[in-house]
Amino acid sequence: MSPLSRRGFLSGTAAGAALIALHPYAARAAANQAHLRIMETTDLHVHVWPYDYYADKPVDTVGLARTAALIEQVRAEAGNSILLDNGDFLQGNPMGDFIAYERGMTERLMHPIVSAMNVLGYDGGTLGNHEFNYGLQFLDDCIFGAEFPIVCANVATKEGATPTEDETLVKPYVILDRELTDGAGAKHPIRIGLIGFVPPQIMQWDRNHLEGKVTARDIVPTAEAWVPKLRAEGCDLVIALCHSGIAGATAEPMMENAAVPLATVDGIDVILTGHQHLVFPGEDFADTEGVDREKGTISGKPGVMAGFWGSHMGLVDLLLERSGDRWTVVSHTSEARPIYERDADKKVVPLVASVARIEEAVQPEHEATLDYVRRPVGKTSAPLYSYFAQVADDPSVQIVSQAQEWYIRQMMQGTQWQGLAILSAAAPFKAGGRSGADYYTDVSAGDVAIKNVADLYLYPNTIRAVKITGAEVKDWLERSAGMFNQITPGKADQPLLDTDFPSYNFDVIDGVTYRIDLSQPSKFGPKGEALNPEASRIVDLAFDGKPIDPAAQFIVATNNYRAGGGGSFPGADGTTIMFEGPDTNRDVVVRFIVDQGTINPSADGNWGFVPMPATSVTFETGPGADRYVAEQKLVLEKVGDAEGGFVTYRLML
C-alpha cells in the first residue's frame, strides 16, 4: 500500500513547509524513531460549507472546508500523518435532509460530505448513531462512494456466539499497511489497526429502521473480543474510533458514553472520541474521573474529542520507536485545534479561511440546499423564538406540539382510539447551551419557509404516539422538571437551570395544565433514574379543567426517539407505543402550516412556576432575547453579559 505521506496536497496558505514550525517530535526524532500525527474530525453532521442554513447566512464557527485548513497545516508540520473521522457525518443540517428526502441516493450518486472527505484524503472512519437516521439502504448507498474504509465492530446483521463470530454491518476493523519516515529519513513499514464503535442505543433511537435488521453489542466487551485479533495480525498501533463520549470510569452494561472504560482495554493505543459535542483536552472534562485534561489522556491512553460541526480538529501526536520490526509509543501529546476563537467582546474571530477545493466539491449540493430551505410553506402571525423556552411556555415549542396533536387526531379517526384524549409532548431543540449564544430559534412574523421549519424541529425524527395513564403523564412531567435546580424560598439570584440537563429532554405537554414547585427536589436524576421517589414538583395538574385522574388513559403525541425510550421518560420505554407514523415530525409541522395557511404560535401558558415571594433566580439566554422580553408574562430583568456571548436574566418567582 501507499505510504502515509501520500495525502500531501497543500493549499496556498499551507504551502512551503519551511514556513511552518515542525513539531518537537519531528525535530528530535532519531534514526530509529518517527513522529506520527493522528488527526480526527467528529460529529460533522454534513457541515461542509461554513454556512448556517437555518439562519441562511455564512458563519465562521462550522464547516469541514475550514477544518481542512488545519488539516493542511498539520500535514505540513510533519511528514507522517493519518486522517480519520469519528462518525455522525450523514445527518444534522438541511443539506443532509435535502439529500435524504429530496435528491435521494443511489450507488451512482455521491453524498456531499463523502465527496468532501474524499477530496481531503481520509484514511478511515467509523459510524455514528446519526448514520442510521435515514435507514440502512441510504447508509449503504452513501458509504459506497467513500474512498476510505469505514469500520464498526458492535453492529451486526447476524450475531454469533461471540462478537468475533458476528456478521457485522460494515467491517469491524481494518489494518492499514503504511510507511513511516524516521528521523534519519529512512522509511519503515507499520501496521495500523482501526476499530470502530457506536452507542448501542441506536437500537432504541432508530428502532423503526433497525429492529429486526441489525443488533448492537455492548462496546467494551466487543472491544475485548476484537482487539486481540488486531494484535494477532501484527498491528503495531491500534486506534479506537469511539463514537461514544467521556463519562463514567466504570464499565456498565450497554454504556452510551464508554470511552473511559474502553481505553482500559489491553491492546488499544489511542482513543478518538465524540458524540457529546464537547472538546478534549479542555475544560469540558475538568472534573471527569479517569481523564487527565492536561496530558490529554483517557485511562492513561492518548485521546481527543474534536468538538462538533468542524469546530475543531483533534490531534494526537505520537513519538514512535522501532525495535526489531515493531513500533512502540514512547511519548504522546493531544490537542483540539479550533477554527475560531472569541475576542474580549465575545465576538467570533475566524482563525482559518476555507479551503476552496472543499467548497467546490459540494457547490451544486450547497446551492440546491439553499433553494430547498428558502421555499415558503405558509405564514405566521407572530414571531417564533426560543429564547425563553426553558423558563416559560414558548411559541416555538407550542407550534410543534399543535402540529403533532393535529396529525395524531387525524390518524386516530375511525380507529378504536377515536375519542380518547390526545396530549402532545414537545421540547425546545435550539436553546443555547453548549451549542452557543446564537443557537436559538428566531423567526419573524410573515412567511415561513422550510428553513424555518427545520429551525423549529432540528432532527428527522418520525411521529409516534403512546398510550399512558394520568399517573404516567405526571411522572413524565416530573422527569422533565429535572431541568431545574432546587430553589430555596426567600433567597436571591439562584441559578435556575441545571446546565447538564439537555434542552431536548425538557418536554412540555400540551393538553393539560400544571405548575412546577421549584422548592421541591427533583424526583428523577439526570438520566431518568429514581432520585427522590416521594418528591413531587408537578402540582395542580389538570385535564379539561379538573384534577387529572391517575388511572385515566391518554394518547401522547411525540417522536420515535422519546417513544422508544430516549431520555428514559416514565411511560415511554417502547412498550407503550400505539401508533407509528411514516412521516417525520418536521414534515408534520410543514403539513400543519400548509393546512392552516397562517399559524398563530402564541403560547397558551398551560404551565408555569409556583410563586415564591421574595425569591429570584437567574438564567442565561441569547442576546436576541432582548427583542422579546416585553412580550413575556414574567417579571424579568436583564442582569448583564455572560461568558460565550450569552446574557443573564433575573426572574422573580
Number of continuous helical runs:
16
> CATH homologous superfamily of the largest domain?
Metallo-dependent phosphatases
CATH architecture of the largest domain: 4-Layer Sandwich
State the end-to-end distance: 67 Å
Please name the CATH topology of the largest domain: Purple Acid Phosphatase, chain A, domain 2
**Beta strand count:** 39
- Please state the structural category: alpha/beta
Q: What is the radius of gyration computed over CA atoms, rounded to a whole number of angstroms?
A: 25 Å
Low confidence ranges: 1-19
What characterizes the major β-sheet?
A: 8 strands, mixed
The helicity comes to: 10-25%
The coarse silhouette is globular
Query: In percent terms, what proportion of residues is strand?
Result: 25-35%
Count of domain modules = 2
The CATH C-level name of the largest domain is: Alpha Beta
Mean pLDDT: 92
Family: Belongs to the 5'-nucleotidase family.
GO biological process, one term: nucleotide catabolic process
Domain 5'-Nucleotidase C-terminal: 391-570
Catalytic activity: a nucleoside 2',3'-cyclic phosphate + H2O = a nucleoside 3'-phosphate + H(+); a ribonucleoside 3'-phosphate + H2O = a ribonucleoside + phosphate
